[in-house]
Amino acid sequence: MKRIxxxxxGAAGFFAAIECAEACAAQGQPAEVVLLxxxxxxxxxxxxxxxxxxxxxxxxxDARALAASYPRGGRALIGPFQRFGPADxxxxxxxxxxxxxxxxxxxxxxxxxxxxxxxxCFLRSALDAGVELxxxxxxxxxxxxxxxxxxxxxxxxxxxxxxKLLLATGGSSREAGALAQSLGHTLEPAVPSLFTFRVETxxxxxxxxxxxxxxxxxxxxxxxRERGPVLATHWGLSGPAILRLSAWGARxxxxxxxxxxxxxxxxxxxxxxxxxxALQERAISHPAGLVMKMPLRPLPNRLWxxxxxxxxxxxxxxxxxxxxxxxxxxxxxxxxxxxxxxGKSPNKxxxxxxxxxxxxxxxxxxMQSRVAPGLHLAGELLDIDGLTGGxxxxxxxxxxxxxxxxxxxxxxxxxxxxxxx
Length: 421
Ligand SMILES: Cc1cc2nc3c(=O)[nH]c(=O)nc-3n(C[C@H](O)[C@H](O)[C@H](O)COP(=O)(O)OP(=O)(O)OC[C@H]3O[C@@H](n4cnc5c(N)ncnc54)[C@H](O)[C@@H]3O)c2cc1C
Fold this sequence. Notes:
binds flavin-adenine dinucleotide, elongated, 6-stranded antiparallel beta barrel, 5-stranded parallel beta sheet, 35% helix, FAD/NAD(P)-binding domain, alpha+beta
């Protein structure tokens, strides 16, 4: 019986292991499918994902549209998504008794709103499919055997040989890519993605907890520009528009050492001219009103007050006596407030890492390595990362599914049948 080892008991590893074991059984060619996890527990990230609810996937059923949510890896994923996309994910979980629901923004969660449902589903499905699950047992090294297959050493000192090997070791540390590198793969440098910005401007911090939407954020001198909600926090800026900007700009912003100017257009649905007319109309319709107390909607009162002060408009200024120069300064604040970003959210607080195994070194039909025959790779170990919204898990399920199917197919590559495992 051929032995297939999966290194990494996370999202991609479990998906691949279950698919592989089920496909082997369906083909009448049972295999020994062994999943090794170096930590004490399996599926750690799945458990904590989505604030404990697990945002399993995104209700986007067109492969190309879906691929557009991946700052890195989108193009390579179009074909794979056509073979196993979000609709297949929904069906996969449904078949195993887990119903998913869609929220208004397209994110999909288990109807139980608990990531434990997903963890339980994986553990049960893996055991039912006959996958051997071993925790506290990392793969320390892997070498290709001359006749095919791999020789592994495990963290408990044991040796193990296998016919095929899947690396699904995730992407949050340098160690995660070490095995792939040792087998000849190139790693694109790991840099954080999906982080928030530190901004020290006191008036912004005073707005902590205020969400404004939609706004347009941009980094002057780059092509980085995003539209969506932003959230003022006690130490800077967060929210979907900031997270998206951080993902698309992961490498650029890393290159700037996370110190750069950030522009915000607070009312991007209006042109500068339209805003100028709106302000002038106020002066005619409410000459006695205080500028500070009459925000342009939909801006929140607190933000408007701060923008008026930042524009150097005195609090007692009335619309009827609004100097032209001050009006221009307020317009500039509304359409292009400049903040100085001085850092990113603390290390390891980010959700995903950008970087990983270079995509050209992998055949995306089978997730097989083009460098080391018999080796497969899946999940965040690859240089793939998506925006928030369930995209990262979808990439793990899709690449795990392809790898699992491919591992089940084809003949064993002749590895020895005995080991000390
Ligand atoms: C706080 C948080 C919340 C998130 N929420 C969401 C969400 O709701 N939706 C979404 O789409 N994405 C979410 N993500 C991202 C998502 O969790 C990852 O993209 C996904 O887990 C990647 O799956 P993976 O299997 O490739 O890697 P992982 O889930 O990281 O699994 C890799 C596993 O391999 C193990 N391992 C590493 N090296 C070895 C070795 N040598 N031998 C054996 N085992 C090894 C690791 O211990 C780990 O358990 C979140 C991430 C974080 C940090």
